[in-house]
Sequence to fold (679 residues):
Amino acid sequence: MNDGETLMRKVDLSVTPLRDLNQDLHRQSSGANEKNWEVLNPMGFHAIAVGVDAPIEIDIRGSVGYYCAGMNKQATITVHGSAGPGVAENMMSGKVRITGDASQYAGATGRGGLLVIDGNAASRCGVSMKGIDIVVKGNIGHMSAFMAQSGHLVVLGDAGDALGDSIYEAKLFVRGSVKSLGADCIEKEMRPEHHDELGKLLETAGVSDVKTSEFKRYGSARKLYSFNIDNADAY
Amino acid sequence: MTYHNPPTTPRKSATFDDYALSEIRRAAHTGIYDIRGGGAKRRVPHFDDLLFLGASISRYPLEGYREKCTTSVTLGTRFAKKPIELKIPITIAGMSFGALSANAKEALGRGASIAGTSTTTGDGGMTPEERGQSKTLVYQYLPSRYGMNPDDLRKADAIEVVVGQGAKPGGGGMLLGQKISDRVAEMRNLPKGIDQRSACRHPDWTGPDDLEIKIQEIREITDWEKPIYVKIGGTRPYYDAALAVKAGADVIVLDGMQGGTAATQEVFIEHVGLPTLACIRPAVQALQDLGMHRKVQLIVSGGIRNGADVAKALALGADAVAIGIAALAALGDNDPAHEADYQALGTTAGAYDDWHEGKDPVGITTQDPELMSRLDPVRGGRRLANYLKVMALEVQTIARACGHNHIHNLEPEDLVALTVESAAMARVPLAGTSWIPGQGQGGF
Fold:
């Protein structure tokens, strides 16, 4: 193999222990030449490809359990299947894509990067998000974006109950219906800068068949930022 | 001739005492519950209610200063590739940058390192000052995940998954707007000056089965190197300790209601949770029932003040203790030398607990640059190290007197209790009797 050529590593989790896979992934660095990884037979294992910190691409062929791609930095990770709870939790950067559905807490506390879910996401999608961008092509469940601090949550389908409860400065864009808004979350005007912002997010996520004008924007009313006894009924 | 009935002495209600009435007036005036720092102030059964028996004819003591009495402790021997070795069994509890100043955090790190023990981050992430000055640093993994990132996770020597704390088991954190400086706001990714609420539950797991998977994830991220602690508030210590073992903890941190917080509701601090003394034996029992005592280490905190408290906690089965309020006192918190400043804040030295207001005249619980500069981290660290070393000497003194060449050889048989309540909680005999109240009744 010539210098600069990249290797494809195949890891079969029916043979290789998960711990070996994750430790091998942790040994990758910016200069590593094993840039393309394929993980076979994930069999719903928890914590696959967690703590990766290298600009590599990982394709996981099948569905995964809890916390896949947790704390990801730099890597592009694609789950060709569905993901269990907490996919891409506390992600720092990089890109994670789920071709199927994601269970609860998808992208929880994420601080950066992009999480794309081709199917639906269950409850608490984007809970406590701190800068991550999440694009869900289907619907999201109840209590999504609870205490969301910053970043963007884009939903092409519908949102469940109590969207954005106790939200801080995260921005939510929903194309379908919202069953109900949580405490201190309100609908806000879609100004030109929001159309620009949303358009870029959709483009990055590979969504081209919808218009930004089809979305509504939601965010914080900022009424609960400082405690006031007369707001007690809101809690 | 006029007859006057003899007057009765004015009598205040024991139920509606001065404090209760002042709290009613305060609530009516402000419309907000009382928020304060610290732990439970009410009198509860505590280590003062226990005594060591010492050696006599049936046991012989060790010679003070001449015969060795070891104080070292190893934490995280169950699964971690790199367990923690401490010279003394007294650690510094988790306290956040945000609640505490950067200088205070640095002082804690310096003092702990000199004394050969660990310090712990808090709800706000890891600061370079603290990491730089702490030889052994435990990184807390909290529901808010403020400042959480994999780089700091890997820089830590151990990771403490915080489920609860003794001052407010079941409650989240609170950092009021006056302490949210630019730096604190940036670390927590929130607007400056707002009241910050930290969640009471973790955002991505609930229950012991999820916790087991969460611990597995943290171990995978850190290549199974670091000890994983699980911190619980004292509520149902038997079951919580058993479930922490089941979830895969290397170390359990158990915090009683005298353990401090930076800020929460007074009603929470004083009325929720168990006294530290009531927590230890059920937790140890759980470890023993599972065959895990001394394999999963137990750190006890909440009201530890001196070497006698440490020795009593160890005798009841703990492997180590953690201190928070006492460590701040060693740095100068509530020192009468600052009485004029405390008076100006409407309080007095020894009673100051409005840590959330950020006006601490000593420079510990503040983000005000002028106040913070009053605390010299080098001198503060030295004071803390002195205090830790004195406590270790005190534990050795007691252990030798009881005939033990390692502090972990202290045992319940070395203790008696002064009250029926403390005898029942500590499961040691009432002094002068062979009676241990509550034995045979079962239940926790």
About this structure: Residues 42-426 of chain B form a domain with the TIM Barrel fold (CATH 3.20.20.70). Residues 297 and 412 of chain B are 17 Å apart (CA to CA).
